[in-house]
Amino acid sequence: MFRYAVLVLLMFLYMGLLANDHTDRQTNTLDSLMQLAEDENMHDTIRMDVLYQISRQIRNDDPAHSLSFAEDALDIALRDQYHNIAARIMGTMGNIYWRMGDFKRAFVFLHEANQIYHLHGNKHGIASSLNHLGALHYGRGYYDTALEYFLSAASIAEELDTLEFLAYLLNNIGWTYQKTGDMHQAMEYHKRALEILNQDEFELAKSFVFNGLGTLNQEQGNHELALFYFRSSLDIRRRYPDQRDVANAKRKLGYLYYLMGAYGQAMDKLQRTHDLYLSLGDNQGISRTLHNLGKIHMAQGQYTKAGDCFHRSLRLAKEIEIDQKISKNYLSLSVLSEVQNDYTLAYAYLQQHMDYREKIVDDEGRQRVIEMQLMFDRQRKEDEIDILNKSNRINELNLQRQRILTINLLMLLLLSIALLLVVFYRYRETKKTNRILSRQKEEIASKNQLLQELNASLVEQKKKVDELNRKLKASEKHLMSVNATKDKFFSIISHDLRNPFASIVSFSRILKRDISNLGKNELLELTAELDKSVEKINSLLENLLQWSRTQRGVIDFQPGYFGLKDAVTETIQLFSRVANEKEISISDHTDDRIMVWGDLNMTRTIIRNLLSNAVKYSHKGGRVELHSRKKDDMVEISVVDHGVGIPEDVQAKLFHSSSLFSTYGTDDEKGSGLGLLLCNEFVRRQGGDIFMKSKEGEGSVFTFSLPLKPSK
Fold first, then answer.
1. 398 in helix, strand or coil?
2. Banded model confidence at residue 545, pLDDT cuts 50, 70, 90
3. SS3 (DSSP) at 605
4. Which helix (H) or strand (E) holds 112?
């Protein structure tokens, strides 16, 4: 027995050394990744991977900062259409929001990731997202829904033969059965998970199974065995850097001490756990720990302290919307009030507890309806695409059948004509041989002429069919190109709209919540920021509307003579406030004697977009200039800035819809890339040309031309 104890002690010492080495390696890896992220010349694909790895490294210790890195990586993945990578990043963001207690955002990101995985047939991704969705519903107390997600994910994991992941899922299923009261099923799934994890490389996963077995034995009253499992789980988790898992293990151990009557040990362990959750910013863990501390105080007769803990736990649970924990706190407050002989308050708390129990059931039902509707919508879209493909195939087969029928009819017609010629020839030969011979030449000549005409007609018909096929192929190619461009536009526009809309939502919530507490200066700052966001959205939507109308060919072109100086002056006035904020001077050197022939509204739009870009990419305190000069029958208008300039490899992409390129301004202003496309469309429509010169770090000159008089 003594030798066994010595061996166990040596094993734990060795594993502790390995854990320290593992932590050092992780620190070195994070430092290397941070250095790589600062490299401005790095390719976007590599930068996306580096940002994602940094996000995963720090998500447990600094979740808010981790989200920032993940969002930057997601922007690159969506822009370059790395669908599976984008889904993986969304899954990580959903997991981080779940850890932070923001369950609504967590569900949005996890569900979107699951949809992308389904669309691209990624079974590993589907199983992972289902597991995270199950954990999300488990955390909110929706155990039936969580069990459905876990079982679906486990079925896929068994098919893919991913043992460690399968063990995690089996353990999660065991946890969920515990919550539903089916202890037999819970024990079976925990044992199955432990059988898979009987390998050293799965040590961390084994700690989660020990945790589940500990809770199961605790529920069954086997406290000594539960203590063994909880301590084994904690020993493993201490050798890894995830402090949140350590805090979870300590909380369960502290609650077990409470059940065993060791109130001193329970209080000490849970107080340390509370401080650890507090340092991690884990409100969910803090709420659960406070609830356990309240039970200990109530068991010791410290009713005031118990009530304080229950109320603090209840307040946090309401902030992060954990209905299950809200319900438990109301129940504990009801029991506490009953012990203090305040039966009226006890009944009120009990009624609140029952209301939230009903709400949990109702919310779970509504959640299932929403998820079923989402699944139905996705299936309907897939069915529509399948029907469209089948319809196209049917049309192709009909065209092929018509071509075969036409050929057969032509052959039948030729055979009929030949047969008629033979019959006619034989008939005439038996009646009057000489007359037949004299007329035969005329008949043959006549038929030859008819055949030549028929042949010419067939050739012409074939040319028409070939031309129709060519047009159909060109139309198909054009539609595919337009579709691809549309998808890219929607991806970029949805991303660019997200930030200003998020700002508007955030500012409106602040105004709604704190308007009575905000000073005049604070209100002015909020409204100024709100106005900026609205202006961004308005500018983006205006460009998008104009672009859409040009693509559909419905925009009116109303040319006429107008003064160039007036159009420039009106547009400069629109940017006076933005330019003043960045301390940028705008100088107008255009000739006020020049009259141009064109569409005034289109010209204003061109100048507005070019001037907007010049201000956006100019440094604070810089200057922007507008010049004009006549050249032959045209006038050239130039917008000059001395800002950041444009790299050579980017310049060729600016006026092409297939590349739709945009970068951040000097104050992190974000555009969609639509402005330059719209400028190109409107300049060409008016018979002019647009071009640019730029040098990185020195500024840019965008020049467009307009006619001085109508074209002949």
1. helix
2. low
3. helix
4. helix 103-119
Q: Which CATH superfamily is domain 556-707 in?
A: Histidine kinase-like ATPase, C-terminal domain (3.30.565.10)
DSSP state for residue 240 in the 8-state scheme? S
pLDDT of residue 208: 75
Q: Which of 635, 585, 611 is nearest to 700 (CA)?
A: 611
CA 17 to chain centre: 41
Q: Rounded distance, CA 530 to CA 251, Å?
A: 44
User: Average pLDDT for residues 293-316, to the nearest whole number?
Assistant: 91
Structure tokens at 267: 């209080």
Q: For the CA atoms of 342, 254, 318, 133, what is the dihedral angle to 10 degrees?
A: -140
Residues facing 630 on adjacent strands: 635
Domain 22-161: give its CATH code: 1.25.40.10
Tokens (6 digits) for 623:
């200057």
Where is average pLDDT lowest: 350-359, 377-386, 463-472, 578-587? 377-386
Given a contact cutoff of 8 angstroms between Cβ atoms, the answer to whether 173 and 154 are in contact is yes
DSSP reduced 3-state for 405: helix
What secondary structure does DSSP assign to 133-176, as a single string? HHHHHHHTT-HHHHHHHHHHHHHHHHHHT-HHHHHHHHHHHHHH
State the amino acid at position 179 in one-letter form.
K
Structure tokens of 349? Answer: 């708390």
- Do 641 and 610 meet the contact criterion of CB atoms below 8 Å apart? no
Are 706 and 634 spatial neighbours (Cβ–Cβ below 8 Å)?
yes
Q: Give the three-state DSSP class for 632.
A: coil
* Closest to 270 (Cα-Cα) out of 89, 278, 652: 278
Highest mean pLDDT among 358-372, 395-409, 631-645: 631-645
Which residues lie closer than 8 Å to 657 by C-beta, 6 or more apart? Answer: 485, 677
DSSP letter string, 55-109: HHHHTTT-HHHHHHHHHHHHHHHHHTT-HHHHHHHHHHHHHHHHHHT-HHHHHHH
Angle between helix axes 143-160 and 123-139 (nearest 10 degrees) is: 160
Q: How far apart are CA 147 and CA 598, in angstroms?
A: 67
d(CA 367, CA 369): 5
Residue 582: exposure state from Cβ atoms within 10 A (0-12, 13-18, ≥19): middle
Q: Using alpha carbons, select from 208, 266, 271 the residue that is nearest to residue 234.
A: 208
pLDDT at position 664 is: 63
Check residue 242 and give left, alpha or beta (phi > 0: left; psi -120 to 50: alpha).
beta
Q: Scanning the structure block, which residue is given the tokens 């050293």? A: 200
- CA gap 167, 339 in Å, rounded: 44
Q: How far apart are the first and last CA of the chain?
A: 108
CA dist., res. 249 & res. 271, Å (int): 13
Residue reference for tokens 């981790």: 66
* 203-219 helix and 183-196 helix, angle to the nearest 10 degrees: 160
Measured CA to CA, the distance from residue 647 to residue 692 in angstroms comes to: 12
For residue 516, the cross-strand partners are none
Compute CA distances 687 → 125, 404, 635, 655, 711, whole Å. Answer: 52, 48, 12, 16, 8
Beta bridge partners of 586: 624
Which residues, including other chains, have CB under 8 Å from residue 39's CB and lie 6 or more apart? Answer: none
